[in-house]
Amino acid sequence: MVRSIFYNIGMQAPLRVLICALWVLAGCGAGEEAPAQTDGPELAAQITTGKRLFMSNGCALCHGESGDGEGRIAHTLSPAPRNFADVRTYKQGNQAEHIAFSIANGLGDGGAMPSYPHISAADRQAMAQFIYSLQDEGASKGGGE
Length: 145
Ligand code: HEC
Known about the structure:
Elements: H1 2-8, H2 13-28, H3 40-56, H4 59-63, H5 96-105, H6 121-133
Bound molecules: heme C.
Protein backbone atom coordinates (compact mmCIF):
# COMPACT_ATOMS: atom_id res chain seq x y z
CA MET A 1 0.00 0.00 0.00
CA VAL A 2 2.72 2.41 1.06
CA ARG A 3 4.80 1.50 -1.94
CA SER A 4 1.99 2.19 -4.37
CA ILE A 5 1.47 5.69 -2.95
CA PHE A 6 5.10 6.53 -3.61
CA TYR A 7 5.03 5.17 -7.14
CA ASN A 8 1.84 6.99 -7.96
CA ILE A 9 3.19 10.41 -7.11
CA GLY A 10 6.34 9.64 -9.09
CA MET A 11 8.81 10.62 -6.38
CA GLN A 12 12.54 10.74 -7.07
CA ALA A 13 14.28 7.58 -5.90
CA PRO A 14 16.60 9.18 -3.27
CA LEU A 15 13.71 11.03 -1.72
CA ARG A 16 11.70 7.84 -1.68
CA VAL A 17 14.49 6.02 0.14
CA LEU A 18 14.75 8.83 2.70
CA ILE A 19 11.04 8.78 3.37
CA CYS A 20 11.05 5.01 3.72
CA ALA A 21 13.88 5.28 6.27
CA LEU A 22 11.96 7.89 8.27
CA TRP A 23 8.89 5.67 8.13
CA VAL A 24 10.83 2.77 9.60
CA LEU A 25 12.39 4.96 12.31
CA ALA A 26 9.00 6.35 13.30
CA GLY A 27 7.68 2.80 13.58
CA CYS A 28 10.54 1.75 15.86
CA GLY A 29 9.95 4.62 18.27
CA ALA A 30 6.28 3.88 18.71
CA GLY A 31 4.75 2.73 21.97
CA GLU A 32 2.97 -0.41 23.06
CA GLU A 33 -0.36 0.40 21.42
CA ALA A 34 1.14 1.27 18.06
CA PRO A 35 0.12 -0.97 15.20
CA ALA A 36 2.80 -3.41 14.18
CA GLN A 37 2.97 -2.40 10.54
CA THR A 38 3.31 -5.99 9.56
CA ASP A 39 2.61 -7.27 6.14
CA GLY A 40 2.09 -10.51 4.29
CA PRO A 41 1.96 -13.79 6.23
CA GLU A 42 2.55 -12.15 9.60
CA LEU A 43 -0.41 -9.83 9.13
CA ALA A 44 -2.55 -12.69 7.86
CA ALA A 45 -1.73 -14.69 11.00
CA GLN A 46 -2.60 -11.68 13.18
CA ILE A 47 -5.95 -11.31 11.42
CA THR A 48 -6.73 -15.03 11.91
CA THR A 49 -5.88 -14.74 15.61
CA GLY A 50 -7.93 -11.54 15.79
CA LYS A 51 -11.00 -13.25 14.38
CA ARG A 52 -10.66 -16.08 16.89
CA LEU A 53 -10.37 -13.58 19.76
CA PHE A 54 -13.31 -11.60 18.36
CA MET A 55 -15.42 -14.75 18.68
CA SER A 56 -14.04 -15.97 22.03
CA ASN A 57 -14.46 -12.58 23.72
CA GLY A 58 -18.11 -12.32 22.77
CA CYS A 59 -17.74 -9.36 20.41
CA ALA A 60 -19.80 -11.17 17.77
CA LEU A 61 -22.79 -11.25 20.10
CA CYS A 62 -23.23 -7.55 19.40
CA HIS A 63 -21.19 -6.96 16.27
CA GLY A 64 -22.10 -10.11 14.32
CA GLU A 65 -19.72 -12.85 13.20
CA SER A 66 -18.87 -10.96 10.03
CA GLY A 67 -18.67 -7.60 11.82
CA ASP A 68 -21.71 -6.25 10.00
CA GLY A 69 -23.32 -4.98 13.20
CA GLU A 70 -26.04 -7.62 13.09
CA GLY A 71 -25.14 -9.60 16.20
CA ARG A 72 -27.70 -11.61 18.12
CA ILE A 73 -28.39 -8.88 20.70
CA ALA A 74 -27.71 -5.91 18.42
CA HIS A 75 -31.37 -4.97 18.28
CA THR A 76 -31.34 -4.36 22.06
CA LEU A 77 -28.62 -1.72 21.80
CA SER A 78 -28.77 2.02 21.25
CA PRO A 79 -26.69 3.32 19.63
CA ALA A 80 -26.41 0.16 17.55
CA PRO A 81 -23.09 -1.60 16.94
CA ARG A 82 -21.77 -0.37 13.62
CA ASN A 83 -20.98 -2.14 10.42
CA PHE A 84 -17.18 -2.35 10.53
CA ALA A 85 -16.97 -2.27 6.72
CA ASP A 86 -18.16 1.34 6.64
CA VAL A 87 -15.20 3.57 7.49
CA ARG A 88 -17.41 6.63 7.93
CA THR A 89 -19.15 5.30 11.00
CA TYR A 90 -16.17 5.04 13.35
CA LYS A 91 -16.40 7.65 16.09
CA GLN A 92 -12.88 7.16 17.48
CA GLY A 93 -11.03 6.54 14.21
CA ASN A 94 -10.84 3.63 11.82
CA GLN A 95 -7.10 2.90 11.84
CA ALA A 96 -5.90 -0.23 13.66
CA GLU A 97 -4.40 1.78 16.53
CA HIS A 98 -7.67 3.69 16.97
CA ILE A 99 -9.61 0.45 17.03
CA ALA A 100 -7.24 -1.05 19.61
CA PHE A 101 -7.87 2.09 21.70
CA SER A 102 -11.64 1.65 21.37
CA ILE A 103 -11.38 -1.96 22.51
CA ALA A 104 -9.37 -0.98 25.58
CA ASN A 105 -11.53 2.00 26.51
CA GLY A 106 -15.01 1.27 25.21
CA LEU A 107 -17.13 4.01 23.76
CA GLY A 108 -18.86 7.11 24.89
CA ASP A 109 -20.93 8.17 27.85
CA GLY A 110 -23.20 5.31 28.69
CA GLY A 111 -22.37 3.79 25.33
CA ALA A 112 -23.19 0.16 24.82
CA MET A 113 -19.60 -0.65 23.81
CA PRO A 114 -17.82 -2.15 26.86
CA SER A 115 -14.15 -1.58 27.62
CA TYR A 116 -11.69 -4.47 27.61
CA PRO A 117 -8.61 -3.22 29.48
CA HIS A 118 -7.91 -6.76 30.75
CA ILE A 119 -7.26 -8.06 27.24
CA SER A 120 -3.53 -7.88 26.44
CA ALA A 121 -2.30 -5.17 24.06
CA ALA A 122 -1.19 -7.86 21.61
CA ASP A 123 -4.63 -9.45 21.58
CA ARG A 124 -6.37 -6.08 21.20
CA GLN A 125 -4.01 -5.33 18.33
CA ALA A 126 -4.84 -8.64 16.63
CA MET A 127 -8.57 -7.91 16.90
CA ALA A 128 -7.98 -4.39 15.61
CA GLN A 129 -6.20 -5.78 12.55
CA PHE A 130 -9.07 -8.22 12.00
CA ILE A 131 -11.61 -5.37 12.16
CA TYR A 132 -9.43 -3.17 9.94
CA SER A 133 -9.32 -6.00 7.39
CA LEU A 134 -13.12 -5.91 7.20
CA GLN A 135 -13.20 -2.29 6.05
CA ASP A 136 -14.16 -1.45 2.50
CA GLU A 137 -11.12 -0.74 0.36
CA GLY A 138 -12.68 2.17 -1.47
CA ALA A 139 -13.76 5.53 -0.13
CA SER A 140 -11.70 6.95 2.68
CA LYS A 141 -9.93 3.94 4.18
CA GLY A 142 -6.70 5.22 5.63
CA GLY A 143 -8.29 8.55 6.47
CA GLY A 144 -8.43 8.10 10.23
CA GLU A 145 -11.33 10.15 11.53
C1 HEC B 1 -22.67 -5.47 24.51
C2 HEC B 1 -22.47 -5.33 23.07
C3 HEC B 1 -21.06 -5.16 22.57
C4 HEC B 1 -19.99 -5.99 22.77
C5 HEC B 1 -19.96 -7.28 23.57
C6 HEC B 1 -18.89 -5.40 22.04
N1 HEC B 1 -19.26 -4.26 21.42
FE1 HEC B 1 -18.11 -3.05 20.24
N2 HEC B 1 -19.63 -1.72 20.09
C7 HEC B 1 -20.90 -1.91 20.59
C8 HEC B 1 -21.71 -0.75 20.29
C9 HEC B 1 -23.17 -0.56 20.66
C10 HEC B 1 -20.88 0.16 19.59
C11 HEC B 1 -21.24 1.57 19.12
C12 HEC B 1 -21.22 2.48 20.34
C13 HEC B 1 -21.52 3.92 20.02
O1 HEC B 1 -21.70 4.27 18.86
O2 HEC B 1 -21.51 4.70 20.98
C14 HEC B 1 -19.57 -0.49 19.45
C15 HEC B 1 -18.49 0.03 18.81
C16 HEC B 1 -17.33 -0.65 18.54
C17 HEC B 1 -16.26 -0.15 17.71
C18 HEC B 1 -16.23 1.17 16.96
C19 HEC B 1 -15.51 2.24 17.72
C20 HEC B 1 -15.66 3.58 17.02
O3 HEC B 1 -14.66 4.26 16.83
O4 HEC B 1 -16.79 3.97 16.68
C21 HEC B 1 -15.30 -1.12 17.69
C22 HEC B 1 -13.98 -1.08 16.94
C23 HEC B 1 -15.76 -2.21 18.51
N3 HEC B 1 -17.00 -1.89 19.02
C24 HEC B 1 -15.07 -3.39 18.74
C25 HEC B 1 -15.47 -4.38 19.63
C26 HEC B 1 -14.68 -5.55 19.98
C27 HEC B 1 -13.34 -5.90 19.37
C28 HEC B 1 -15.38 -6.24 20.91
C29 HEC B 1 -14.97 -7.51 21.67
C30 HEC B 1 -13.71 -7.46 22.37
C31 HEC B 1 -16.63 -5.53 21.13
N4 HEC B 1 -16.64 -4.41 20.34
C32 HEC B 1 -17.63 -5.95 21.99
C33 HEC B 1 -21.37 -3.01 21.28
C34 HEC B 1 -20.59 -4.06 21.71
